[in-house]
Recover the amino acids of this structure.
């Protein structure tokens, strides 16, 4: 009897474990199929890591994924940004900058049409709606914020409620079925019960979040800060702090006793700023200044001579890169003042090969080109010249480079055979962006990780020097 009872118990245990195994396999299959389905979906946008730790969770998952490089996101996905971290989200010509300790959810409209919605659950985001976009809708604690095209705003949500500041353009607030316009330079705040709050604040109208300025000379660029004071007495002075890093330690500057504006001279690089009143932080943000001056021309060397007999020589034009440039305008002329331009060509790389130039003295220059969203002007490089000569002397050297140029090149580059490159990480860099810059493919960041024994691809720091294999 006991033996029979034990056999029944054994059978029950065996059936239980087999059922559990089948259930696990079924769930694995469903998870795998959902992964394939997700890949077939049209992404809502691209998530770009700016600093440190950013995580993403698909709507049908339980576990969070670490995002190491720029990654597509889909309707229903959750994105959270850790302490001392930040990220950017590009959705239909709208840029959403996600600040530290922030959680958002991306979702489509209920009918599957119209603009995507971004639900801000906690933290702070900055939104720049492109001039060509249809805008984007924010859902914050039951209130809807419609960021119209061309608008720039900051929004926050937390235990104390929500706050929305409009830096540029017009934003529509929809609350309890009522629509209210929030115009440029103003803000609104509500507690969790929907009651409007009166808060001391400063709406910064310039520079906008993640502004991009161009500096086309060696002089520092004068950056104008302007803000509207809200619920602050006229005798209450503000403090502006700037630094080249997120933690405000590198190149730190502080300006006290400010009313509603400030003018700061800054060099090229990424700059973080925060505006405070006493111990109260009113607003913070960042912007980047790009060097847009003419790049150094490296080839052909000044005053070099290229000789040919029958076919025109193939000339390689090369110059130094300019960070942030989307392309370069190359101009070649047979006049030193470029009154008549023979070749005017815009290209995306920092070199050009052509065999169209015949006998004569040629002058050339290069100007970097940036996207229209960058504010400022660019300038041409210094003019360089070379000669192309047609000759019947087959003994003559094909290329003649001035001795002074060779000596200068040797002095500058005592080890020309070295192929190892080094790169100093700048604020805002990610391994994906560095790989895209050097290899043209952000997915090749693994090469940099392996060459430098980087234990965590998310943790790279400004000033860190990496070998670029």
């Amino acid at each position: 009897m006991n033996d029979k009872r034990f056999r029944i118990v054994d059978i029950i245990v065996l059936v239980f474990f087999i059922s559990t195994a089948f259930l696990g396999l079924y769930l694995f299959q469903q998870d795998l199929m959902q992964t394939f389905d997700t890949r077939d979906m049209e992404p809502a946008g691209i998530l770009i890591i700016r600093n440190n730790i950013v995580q993403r969770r698909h709507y049908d998952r339980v576990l969070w994924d670490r995002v190491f490089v720029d990654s597509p996101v889909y309707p229903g996905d959750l994105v959270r940004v850790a302490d001392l971290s930040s990220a950017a989200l590009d959705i239909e010509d709208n840029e959403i900058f996600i600040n530290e300790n922030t959680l958002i959810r991306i979702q489509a409209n209920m009918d599957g049409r119209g603009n995507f919605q971004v639900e801000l659950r906690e933290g702070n985001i900055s939104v720049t709606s492109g001039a060509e976009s249809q805008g984007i809708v924010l859902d914050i604690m039951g209130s809807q914020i419609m960021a119209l095209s061309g608008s720039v705003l900051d929004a926050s949500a937390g235990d104390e409620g929500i706050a929305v500041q409009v830096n540029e353009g017009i934003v529509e607030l929809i609350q309890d079925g009522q629509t209210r316009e929030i115009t440029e330079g103003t803000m609104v705040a509500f507690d969790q019960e929907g009651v409007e709050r009166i808060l001391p604040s400063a709406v910064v109208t310039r520079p906008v979040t993640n502004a991009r300025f161009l500096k086309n000379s060696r002089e520092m660029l004068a950056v104008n800060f302007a803000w509207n004071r809200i619920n602050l007495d006229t005798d209450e002075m503000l403090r502006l702090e700037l630094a080249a890093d997120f933690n405000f330690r590198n190149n730190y500057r502080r300006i006290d006793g400010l009313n509603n504006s400030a003018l700061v001279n800054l060099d090229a690089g990424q700059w973080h700023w925060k505006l405070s009143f006493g111990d109260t932080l009113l607003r913070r943000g960042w912007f980047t200044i790009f060097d847009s001056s003419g790049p150094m021309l490296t080839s052909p060397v000044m005053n070099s001579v290229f000789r040919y007999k029958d076919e025109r020589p193939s000339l390689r034009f090369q110059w130094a890169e300019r960070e942030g440039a989307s392309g370069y305008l190359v101009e070649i002329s047979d006049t030193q003042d470029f009154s008549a331009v023979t070749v005017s060509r815009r290209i995306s790389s920092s070199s050009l090969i052509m065999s169209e130039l015949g006998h004569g003295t040629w002058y050339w220059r290069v100007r970097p080109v940036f996207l229209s969203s960058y504010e400022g002007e660019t300038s041409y490089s210094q003019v360089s010249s070379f000669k192309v000569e047609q000759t019947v002397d087959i003994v003559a050297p094909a290329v003649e480079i001035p001795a002074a140029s060779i000596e200068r090149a040797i002095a500058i580059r005592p080890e020309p055979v070295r192929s190892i490159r080094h790169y100093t990480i700048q604020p805002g860099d990610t391994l994906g962006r560095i790989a895209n810059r050097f290899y043209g493919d952000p997915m090749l960041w693994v090469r940099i990780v392996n060459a430098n024994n980087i234990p965590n691809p998310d943790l790279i720091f400004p000033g860190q020097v990496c070998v670029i294999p």
